[in-house]
Amino acid sequence: MTTRQVLYLSHGSPDLSLIDHPARTFLRDFGERLPKPRGALIISAHFETSGLVIGGASRPRTWHDFHGFPDVLYRMHYPARGLPEMAKSLVNELNDEGIDTLLDAERALDHGIWSPLSLLWPQADVPLIPISVPMQVGAAAQLKIAASLGRWAEQNAFMLIGSGAATHNLGDRHFTHDAPDAWARQFNDWVIDVAARGDQAAMRDWQQAAPNARYAHPTPEHFLPLLMCLGAMEGEPLEVLHDSFMFGNISMLALGSKAVTV
Question: pTM for the complete prediction?
Fold first, then answer.
């Protein structure tokens, strides 16, 4: 049984920290109980690249990569420090394994990182290494990359966090937090079942196997952090930590390995 600390968070709207929602309450309460790791690799849906890229800034800036939100959100900053030397070491190890990996020494913290982490760890006292979602490799390669990331994180006493959305069709979102649409609930329940079984094969074929997959994710970037979290577990399960929805069909599902279940 692995002791890997793997956490998947659906990060929702950038203003999650400002609104009254069960997911906000969950993140704040969970963060108070969760032992802080030495550092965290964090895979963000908003860090899209063709191949794998690792962020290596020593003091990554807070990137307000959105428009039309309250002014107070643009004044928020998340001053978590980076780990440039460890990021370089990780890049070298992955390249040695045959996984083509680049270092981005200036990569900022996008809202997929700082929005949920500002609730989980409001003191910004866990050092972070951002990890991209490699869009131009297939699911099998993404799972292989994730397994290597999971092993590296475990060996270095790091947590691996994925930040995305278990369902993400913004074109069909509601304007209020209604009960979830049937298609979103069905896809979300499929994810929960696959994660509970650690089913790598189902995750590899998710676009064909999951109900309403193409509707739940018209583009795949918000699903890939979840896929990579399961890949990091190499067949072991992720358990449900929180399950709610925003705007009628945007899942706020959170999953965790045994090692982060507190």
Answer: 0.95
